[in-house]
Amino acid sequence: MKTKFLELKNVSKSFGKVNALERVNFYIKGEPEIVSLIGDNGAGKSTLIKIISGIHTLNYGEIYINSKKMKNWSVIKSRASGIETVYQDRALAFQQTIARNIFMGRELTGIFGFLKSKLQFAEADRLMRTIGFTSKAFASDSIVNKLSGGERQGVAIARALYFKANLMILDEPTTALSLTESEKVFDFIRHAKESGTSCIFITHNVYHAYSVSDRYVILDRGEIVMETDREHTTAEQLVKDMQKIAQSHDKVREGIKNGRS
Amino acid sequence: MHRNHVITSISIFIEKNRRALSALLVLSAMMIILMIASPQVFLNPLMYRSIFKTLPMFFILTSAMVFVIVSGELDLSFESVIGLAGWIFVLTLKSGLSPYLGVLFALIAGAFVGFINGVLVTRLGLSSFVSTIGMRFLIRGLIHIGTQGEGIQVTYLNGTPFYNTFLGSIWGFPVNMLWGLGFVVLSVLLFSYHRFGAQISCIGDNQESSREMGINVATIKTLAFVYMGIASAIVAVQFTLTNQTFYPGTGEGILLVVLAAVFIGGTPGWGGIGTIVGTAIGACIVKLIESGTVAMGVSYLFKQFFYGLIVILALIGHKLNEKRYRY
Question: What pTM does this model have?
Answer without folding.
Answer: 0.86
